Amino acid sequence: MIESRWIPRAAVGALAGLAWAASLRGYMSELGGFASQVTWMGTFVGVLLPGVLVGATLGAATATAIEPTGRGRTALRWCAASPLLFAIIPLLFPDAVVVLLTQGLGSGAAGVALAAVAGGYAVGGRRTWARIALGLLSVLALVGLAWSIPLTGSPRVAIDTARAWWAIALVTSLMLLLMIAAATPFRRLQSPLGPNTLSRLEGE
């Protein structure tokens, strides 16, 4: 049945999201240097879990069963907002909001989440003016993330080192992939498929 097609797609998306988040954690380790620590809460719950959930959601958004009508449109809107989990889940930690407001820790996660949604709309949205504006915002976010490594001031990731450019290539490619994946729900909202098409596909 067509209704079950979203399950394997969500599973593949979850696996891709896990690999993506684990790779992002490598970039975060470079950003933190020797002070970076891998913990159960910070890494597995704060980084890997959102990656799995976002990947699964965006994978499910590719399924034909999610039609751009009725409840399907609502589901796609939730899918489009799913990258915000990268910012929301870490904020659920004890004292996370206080630390964010007083020390700025956690603002990077918010930047990743907002850049993903903005980039997704820039790639797959409908309104041209909004796509251009959010596209420019996405480019600025990419530049900021790319240069966050050398801006740490650490000699081991100085701008003239291969390690710095490896980290820049890593985070830039990861964000571009996330933006492309995040465009899926926006593209599906513009799909011409309707209930009649869905009924026909169910009969195949």
Notes on the protein architecture:
This protein has 204 residues and is mainly alpha-helical. It has one domain (2-186). 72% of the residues lie in helices and 0% in strands. It has helices at 6-32, 40-60, 71-81, 85-91, 96-103, 107-124, 128-146, 162-189, 195-202. α1 packs antiparallel against α2, α1 runs antiparallel to α8 (162-189) and α7 packs antiparallel against α8 (162-189). The longest helix has 28 residues, at 162-189. 32% of the residues are buried. The model is unreliable at 194-204 (pLDDT under 50).
Topology:
Elements: H1 6-32, H2 40-60, H3 71-81, H4 85-91, H5 96-103, H6 107-124, H7 128-146, H8 162-189, H9 195-202
